[in-house]
């Protein structure tokens, strides 16, 4: 069910942050897009979230972004395990997502990519 997991990195400016990550990962971003008042880039196993500190803080409650094959199945598993959905399902440029806090306190964003994004990043 889990296809990829991204560690979240927080930055003031995406364009300033990406060159070092490109050098360290040996790759260019798989995705780069805007959402609300922030910019995001997926590079290697990192999701860089950039923009004003106040805007970034709106997303800081999650420690990782988890890409899943089926958001409905992930939601069912989260519900069965007693997780609390902290942000109900919504959509972005890349697909559907929700935020959930697991029992014990861990909170993550779960994303089901659109088929074209999945092919672009994973080739599947």
How would you explain this protein's 3D organization?
The model has no long low-confidence stretch (mean pLDDT 96). With 124 residues, this protein is α+β, with helices and mostly antiparallel strands. The chain is 27% helix and 43% strand. The protein has an eight-stranded mixed sheet with strand order 2-3-4-1-5-8-7-6. A hairpin with a 2-residue loop joins strand 2 (31-35) and strand 3.
Give a concise summary.
By secondary structure, this protein is α+β, with helices and mostly antiparallel strands. Helices cover 27% and strands 43% of the residues.
- Straight-line distance between termini: 13 Å
Describe the sheet with the most strands: 8 strands, mixed
Number of DSSP helical runs? 4
% residues in beta strands: 35-45%
- Low-confidence parts: none
Number of strands: 8
Radius of gyration based on Cα positions: 14 Å
Helix content: 25-40%
| Average pLDDT score | 96
N-to-C series of helices and strands: EHEEEHEHEEEH
Strand arrangement across the biggest beta sheet: 2-3-4-1-5-8-7-6
Described by the principal axes of the CA atoms, the overall outline is: globular
Give me the secondary-structure category.
alpha+beta
Describe the secondary structure blueprint for this structure.
Elements: E1 2-11, H1 14-25, E2 31-35, E3 38-43, E4 46-50, H2 53-56, E5 64-68, H3 71-80, E6 84-91, E7 95-101, E8 107-113, H4 115-122
Parallel strand pairs: 1-4, 5-8
Antiparallel strand pairs: 1-5, 2-3, 3-4, 6-7, 7-8
